[in-house]
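The protein record reproduced below.
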Amino acid sequence: NVLVEKSFTANAGQAREALAVAEETGMLCTEAIWTRYMPSRKLINEVIESGEIGEVKAASANLCYPVSGKARMTDPACAGGALLDVGVYPLNFLDMAVGADHGRTLDHFDTSMVPAETGVDAQNSTTLYYSDGTMAVSTSSMLVSSDRGGYVWGTEGYLVVTNINNPESIDIYDNAHKPVRSIAVPPQLTGYEYEVADAANALLDGKIECEAMPHADTIRIMELMDAIRDRWGLKFPFES
């Protein structure tokens, strides 16, 4: 049984291989992207589903850390680059806040990146266009620090999530930019307890995946990141 740190694998093909073994053996294999398991996910979705900020039309999320000095981050043989290491967080945030959690399907995307000397992405931006016309922008970088914010804009107001990597607060504003209310995120031990508990409960129930991050969602996010890298022309040495 395995709880696998994000990104689950380097590409969707590897993910399918790993999950096929889980299917064959009946063993648990699930992705440990902790924001999928945290209480903040439900709190954010409740605000959006309530209509408090109106009809959602656009969103944005970013996560940037100056970590290019770490050798693995720029090494193509280690699947380096900002996308797989930090970019997975804004992509997952947007998937939860405006995408699949709310029944939207991705129609197409535009993307660009600035390469490091080794060819991996040093920083990148991807605009997601959903089938209902909603837009969402994901930005990640290993060169600079960012505010790590998540923003969801609706017709009646908007919400701001402080630190999408480990949400600290959820603040709601009206269309005049006046604060409406602030939602406190429950205190936690380390933040890892939620994914560990979910995995443990899945094991006790004889499941091979966790409801908060089922295999289909892992594959879908990996396929999106594959498609983004393909658009950039970025392949790792171990990929054919």
Summary: Residues 2-232 form a domain with the Dihydrodipicolinate Reductase; domain 2 fold (CATH 3.30.360.10). The chain has one domain: 2-232. The chain has a mean pLDDT of 98.
